Sequence to fold (84 residues):
Amino acid sequence: MRHWPVQDAKARFSELLDACSSEGPQMVTKRGVEAAVLVPATEWRRLKDRARPSLKELLLASEGRGDLAVPARGGGHRRKPPVF
Fold:
């Protein structure tokens, strides 16, 4: 994976895009620290399809996502209230 300083990535974006298409993901660095990765669209779709559903998708889904272990009710012990 080739590393591109952000200044070079901005100035030579077309070259960065071509390198991404022909060589694969390209790392963009900011002040020497990895900041972002440019990946081909096909790779992005593949990664996105393999990703787990988001919390929002799970909460809005009409079907359940697994069995929950719910304890039976009424099996607990209660303390007796104090007598005055």
